[in-house]
TrEMBL record:
Catalytic activity of the protein: citrate = D-threo-isocitrate
Subunit structure: Monomer.
Domain Aconitase A/isopropylmalate dehydratase small subunit swivel stretches: 513-581
One Pfam short name: Aconitase
GO molecular function, one term: aconitate hydratase activity
Domain Aconitase/3-isopropylmalate dehydratase large subunit alpha/beta/alpha: 8-407
Top enzyme class: lyase
Protein name: aconitate hydratase
Documented EC number(s): 4.2.1.3
UniProt keyword terms in alphabetical order: Iron, Iron-sulfur, Lyase, Metal-binding
Length: 648
């Protein structure tokens, strides 16, 4: 039997385990990606583990999230990251160079390689024939140190692509259609692989759009073959020598089969407050909007901006509306400017922001209270925009631009004018001035880390106790995102390198009393959190595990976990358990006290644990999915302690 592309990538990088779905495998990592919202902690972890230099073929540190400099915290951390990149032998992408995912695609992505990033949208580079996955920062730190990345062997979900887009429909509508079908947890423990005759109608950047939001499906990754279109793109970027062909063998099979006919798609939109809440745009037409926003790693290409530019050319946006443009890379911004697109936008009334993530992570461009925001970003979880009670819709650039002209959500097919045609550039700008190359080992050894006053070292973490009596401090429902556990935005993210400070924002969207109650309980042994399905979906930021751990969280019991957050909990010594009988979730209440006996021995003997509810004469059965390696980590109190023990 032949292999599909995903299986080939895994087979070529497999260093531990067997390719049996659900079993733990270890993969050699060729490249890593870190950004400033997560990378500061990664660099501190490299320091804590005593690593001297990156062992990967290419590791890059990007500054694209925390660009607003309202005080010294962000620029201080930028200096720290630059010094760390020099010290550990990493590429460094300076502020203003652009969003990590499209810049990495332009400059460093290589077909046939593995990429691990401390950003859940790292999967975007699966568009280049790579196995690209998001993970917690400490997993990326381990990969930089030359250690394998451990993950459960995914099933491969094959999606046959046919047809071509009709007018006013584009790649964002394709991935929104997949989310409409399968929701935000439909792809958990799967890698989506796209193949078929319709691929010839998807550019490399169209594929980026689709691969990027595979994260919203809960998938481990998204893979496209490396074909003539990949070669064309790499040639335009001056990197044709890095191209190899990589496609599925004849007769390759998939664990799940799906098909998407591009010609049958229509404009789609995700309603608040989930990327999985997708309907045709025609169902929500007429909703007034305060903001229309184009940019982010979910629509980062030249074409995505150029089509919007042609739509608004010679026209003007609606009164009272903010039309926000967030270019995704510096070299693309140069092209947009040279081709007259920036002038089109400005003449139409748009606001131009710097190249970066910006409002996608709540770093500026927050919408007004009680008003609708229409965005081409990948996520609309509650509060992610920077406005606590936000109302954010996700859509394509076509929908965003036409709606900006009308002042309300509009099906672009009813724009009242012809669909503009946009040609890809024959010679796009290649600009590497803000991407600093790694220093030589000799030069790196001389570098000192530059630490501003906001950087705090990672606190020591104790081992998992054998016996615990812990209260349920918080009970939450389904689909709790890491944005709800620990929000992004300009208020919170500047404290990313200061754990005691960033912890103060934990669960504030869900329960603003949690921090005070948790810190009071911390000295009495800690606490438990109870949750529903898909707990921890969304961003890979490990602070959503690290902050609760700092505040005394020892055990999380839920119906099921999102992949990256589950792994982050393990990495920091929080025991992740799921209900054997999901009905037990209903019987537990905030304030109940749970008793764990002989826990260290029990989790080693099997995967089930009996937990008594004090004072209720009730015992619930829970289970873990930890590998032998992860059990050792849990006993040690987390991955940092486990690594230290190995090095001693």
């Amino acid at each position: 039997m032949g292999y599909n592309v995903t299986q080939k990538l895994i087979k070529d990088h497999l260093v531990e385990g067997k390719m049996n779905p659900g079993s733990e495998i270890g993969l050699k990592i060729d490249q890593t990606l870190t950004q400033d919202a997560t990378g500061t902690m990664v660099m501190l972890e490299l320091e804590a583990m005593g690593i001297d230099r990156a062992k990967t073929e290419a590791s890059a540190q990007y500054v694209d999230h925390n660009l607003i400099q309202e005080d010294s915290k962000n620029p201080d951390d930028h200096l720290f990251l630059e010094s760390a990149a020099k010290r550990f032998g990493l590429y460094f992408s300076r502020p203003g160079n652009g969003v990590s995912h499209p810049v990495h695609m332009q400059r460093l992505a290589k077909p046939g390689q593995t990429l691990l990033g401390s950003d859940s949208h790292t999967c975007a580079n699966g568009c280049m024939g790579m196995l690209a996955m998001g993970a917690g920062g400490i997993d990326v730190a381990m990969a930089i140190a030359g250690e394998p990345f451990y993950v459960k062997m995914p099933k491969v979900w094959g999606v046959k692509v046919t047809g071509e887009f009709p007018e006013w429909v584009s790649a964002k509508d394709a991935i929104l259609e997949m989310l409409r079908r399968h929701g935000v947890k439909g792809g958990v423990n799967h890698i989506f692989e796209y193949y078929g005759p319709g691929l010839k109608n998807l550019t490399a950047m169209d594929r980026h759009v689709i691969a990027n939001m595979g994260a919203e499906l809960g998938a481990t990754g998204t893979v496209f073959p490396s074909d003539d279109e990949t070669k064309r793109y790499m040639k335009l970027q001056g990197r044709e020598d890095d191209w190899i062909e990589l496609k599925a063998d004849d007769g390759a099979k998939y664990d799940v089969n799906d098909e998407i006919d591009l010609s049958e798609l229509e404009p789609m939109i995700a309603k608040p407050s989930s990327p999985g809440n997708v309907v045709p745009v025609s169902e929500v037409e007429g909703e007034p909007i305060y903001q229309s926003y184009i940019g982010s790693s979910a629509n980062p290409g030249f074409r995505d901006f150029a089509i919007a530019s042609k739509i608004v050319e010679g026209r003007h946006i609606a009164d009272g509306l903010s039309f926000d443009l967030n270019p995704t890379s510096r070299q693309m911004l140069i092209d947009l400017s040279q081709q007259g697109h920036i002038a089109n936008f400005l003449q139409a009334g748009a606001r131009l922001h710097q190249a970066g993530c910006n409002g996608c992570i709540g770093m500026g461009q927050a919408p007004a209270t009680g008003r609708n925001s229409l965005r081409t970003t990948p996520r609309n979880f509650p509060g992610r925009s920077g406005t606590r009670e936000d109302s954010v819709f996700l859509c394509s650039p076509e929908v965003a631009a036409v709606s900006a002209l009308k002042g309300k959500i509009t099906d672009p097919r009813k724009a009242g004018f012809d669909y503009p045609k946009v040609q890809e550039l024959d010679k796009p700008t290649i600009d590497t001035q803000l991407l600093e190359k790694p220093l030589s080992p000799k030069e790196s050894a001389k570098e000192e880390l530059v630490k501003g006053p906001n950087i705090a070292s990672i606190p020591k973490m104790d081992k998992l106790p054998n016996d615990m009596e812990l209260p349920i401090l918080l009970k939450v429902g389904d689909d709790i995102s890491t944005d709800e556990i620990l929000a992004g935005g300009a208020r919170v993210l500047p404290f990313r390198s200061n754990l005691p400070e960033i912890s103060k924002f934990t669960f504030e969207i869900v329960d603003d009393t949690y921090y005070d109650r948790a810190m009071k309980q911390r000295e009495d042994g800690g606490h438990v959190i109870i949750g529903g399905t898909n707990y921890g979906q969304g961003s890979s930021r490990e602070h959503a595990a690290l902050a609760p751990r700092y505040m005394g969280l020892r055990v999380a019991i839920v119906k099921d976990f999102a992949r990256i957050h589950w792994q982050n909990l393990v990495n920091f010594g929080i025991l992740p358990l799921t209900f054997v009988n999901e009905k037990d979730y209903e019987d537990l209440e905030q304030g109940d006290v749970l008793t764990f006996k002989d826990l260290r021995e029990t989790i080693h003997k099997g995967n089930e644990v009996n937990v008594k509810v004090k004072g209720k004469d009730k015992t619930i059965k829970v289970q873990h999915a930890l590998s032998k390696r992860q059990l050792e980590m849990m006993q040690s109190g987390g991955l940092v302690n486990w690594v230290k023990n190995r090095l001693e």
